[in-house]
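Quick start: what a row looks like.
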Amino acid sequence: MTPAAFLAYCAAVTLAAATPGPAMFTVITNGVSRGFLRAFMAGVGVAAGDAVLVTLALLGLVALAQTFEWIFLLLKYAGAAYLIFLGIKMWKASATQSNEPRAGEARLSRSFLLGASIALGNPKAILFHASIMPLILNLDTMTFVDGLLVVAVVISVNIVTMGIYAALAGRASGWFRTPKRMRLMNRFAGSAMIGTGALIAAR
């Protein structure tokens, strides 16, 4: 893999990761309502899910993934349902309850699984990876090390991009201190989560 091809692939993956979509909205709403750590772990989950998809594309298992598309659909609907559940919970939360999710910072695994399910729940993403790779990379001459590098790029770009969104959303959550603002945050974050969940389910 030439340096030029490597940089071009990095740019393409970065653009795809930074583009607004369900993963980005999930990270942002988690950051605003539940703090940086929960949002960041959701971003790490997105990175892990995307790494699985790009690995399948590298191994030429696109057809196999399409055969078992029902697994991806189950993950998609599970993630969408959980987001809608969180959104309803946020809507019902009072201003004094808005910090309750922060008390559960130890349960970061839920945020990770949410992010992973959203990434894996988009079976079309594997087609993106499978279509863009031949345009930029020479798959015939790609080595095992090159493959590891590609996966590392996908993971790193997703973590950095989602980490930035998580940090910005986490800082914004500090503005919601008064009961009135907390209530506004609950309504906004709840609506965003419900809307994102519905969007994921409808895609």
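That is the whole record. Residues 37 and 174 are 14 Å apart (CA to CA). The two ends are 35 Å apart (CA to CA).
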